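Review form for a predicted model. The reviewer records the input and the model, then writes brief findings.
Reviewer: anonymous (R2)
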Amino acid sequence: MKIVIEFYRTRDADDAHAVVARETVEVDLDGAIAAARLLARTLELPQHPDSMMITDANGKMHYSGIIGSEAVNEGRQ
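Model under review:
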């Protein structure tokens, strides 16, 4: 399955977010979450992302969460 992973920074004052990077991978949903966490640590990005969102090729969101936190603001659709 083609999955799109967006890494972004969130501004606390108004919850605005800016996309830092976008990667496309071929993997199942469970593998995408693991791949996203790995990519967040290993990609050379202009800024360190604090959140991520995983969508399928059609744009349907399957996962959104704060990077490095298992319990806060995570949700699977």
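Findings: The longest strand covers residues 17-26.
Further findings: The chain has one domain: 2-72.
Recommendation: see findings above.
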